[in-house]
Amino acid sequence: MVKSDMIAAGEFEKIADLTREAVEIALGFKVAHIGINEIDEKASTESATDFQELFGFETKVGNSSIFAGPAIEITKTPYLGKHGHIAIGTNKIDMAISYLERKGFKVAKETEKRKNDKLIAVYLEKEISGFAIHLLGNNGKIYHFWRNYAPIETRWA
Q: Are residues 93 and 118 in contact, defined by beta-carbon separation less than 8 angstroms?
């Protein structure tokens, strides 16, 4: 991972920095979407309509929430997080969980969501500023759940 001359020179701080950077690149953490808790379906619809009228964000109605554009999810009933949640996409969800647990964060196992027996989403136990943190597997894309949008890297590049 690092050149032997760095080890020989005792550049351990630089080595640690490079290692951290490599792990972060492998995990590929990115904000996938922001979830806003609403009190009911009527309020959720009104909020989604506001985003559509203000910014032209197309709405997509689901069973438990409405998306306004690819990155704003408005729940039809309050869910985890005082204010809502922030979904963080990752390239390797199992590796991300191990990484975060080593940093002292724990996942809420009861929130695990699986598809074909593969973990695709889970919340952390700790909230940040009133937002639950939701890990979401990227499967190679940031907005894999929103069919009409390309991943953000290609849309804004």
A: no
16 in any annotated domain: no
Report if residue 70 sits inside a domain. no
**pLDDT above 80 (res 138):** no
**Does 155 score more than 70 pLDDT?**
no
CA 97 to CA 123: how far, in whole Å?
Answer: 10
Confidence of residue 131 (pLDDT cuts 50, 70, 90): very high
Distance CA 47, CA 38 (A): 9
Q: Is 69 domain-assigned?
A: no
Instruction: State the residue range of the domain holding 115.
Output: 29-37+79-155
The answer to whether position 113 is within a domain reads yes
Q: Quick check: 30 and 138 in contact, CB under 8 A?
A: yes
Mean pLDDT of 46-64: 94
Q: What is the CATH number of the domain that holds 111?
A: 3.30.1900
The pLDDT of residue 3 is 79
The angle that helices 93-102 and 12-27 make with each other, rounded to 10 degrees, is 140
Instruction: Give how many domains the chain has, as a whole number.
Output: 1
